[in-house]
Amino acid sequence: MLFPIGDDNRGLHRTAYVTITLLVGNLVVYFFLQGSAAFTYGFAAVPLELTTGVDLVSPETLRVQGQSIEIPHAPGPTPIWLTAITAMFMHGGLGHLAGNMLYLWIFGDNVENRFGHRAFLAFYLVSGLAATAAQVALKPSSVIPTLGASGAIAGVLGAYLVLFPRNKVHFLFFLWVISVPALVAIGFWIVTQFVSGWGSITAATEQAGGVAYAAHIGGFVAGVVLATIMRVFIKKERQNVFEVTVHKRGDRMW
After folding, report:
1. Strand order across the 2-7 sheet
2. Per-residue pLDDT tens digits for 191-219
3. Residue 161 pLDDT > 80, yes or no?
4. SS3 content of the chain, % helix, strand, coil (to 5)
């Protein structure tokens, strides 16, 4: 079993305030707010709510493989589309929370260091929204709540792949620690998302739970695209800073 435990952090010169704040925020929401089922079901993102703008406040019955399953619902925020944001800070269990926070901790600081704090926060939220949009586009009439930071963190992985493809990512492989380039590690991850999620993505019938693979893939693609665009501006900014620095040093010489 492969388990990520760290990466190459050489060259970091900023404290990852946004990454740390996101980590704390997710923990606070899970441990202090999600104890209420009404909060969890009310503030999770439901595709049908987002496509119609109507808040579902009563249970819905879903037929899955010949069985009737009741899907709870509860009043959400106004306007209801805010659930696309609130759902990013909620999780379906401790394992879900721990896995997401581990990946955010490992990969988020590098991306935040390159983008800067405010740009990274905007990037994170946009990636999460893109992930939700992908899930909604796949099943726009679904009444199943979706929640988790996975889509936004998939965007962080996409950005990491663009910005640090040669960085070594360290994995715990049973009792050994192995290191592989991010291109290999993250490339393997996104391939598994396609392979594992193909059945659920192409399924004609509704499924009552499981992993939102479309959200992972949508967030990842958004992260790659946004990071590619933002990298151009980062290079221009660095070039301008370099030119100004050289000019000032030249002035001192005369």
Report:
1. 2-7, 168-173, 176-181
2. 999 998 887 776 655 555 578 999 999 99
3. yes
4. 65, 10, 25
Q: Name the helix (H) or strand (E) containing 5.
A: strand 2-7
Q: What's the Cα-to-Cα distance from 225 to each of 33, 126, 162, 217, rounded to whole Å?
A: 34, 11, 9, 12
Query: Among candidates 139, 140, 50, which has minimal Cα distance to 86?
Result: 50
Q: Where are the alpha helices (DSSP H) in 139-181?
A: 150-163
Confidence at residue 202, expressed as pLDDT on a 0 to 100 scale: 67
Tokens for 147, please give them.
Answer: 């929640």
CA-to-CA distance for 230 and 242, rounded, in angstroms?
18
Residue 247 has pLDDT above 50, yes or no: no
Tell me if residue 241 falls in helix, strand or coil. helix
Q: Which domains does the chain have, with CATH numbers?
A: 2-253 (1.20.1540.10)
H or E segment at 4?
A: strand 2-7
Q: Which amino acid is at 59?
A: P
Give bridge partners of residue 64 from the DSSP assignment: 67
CB 120 within 8 A of CB 187: no
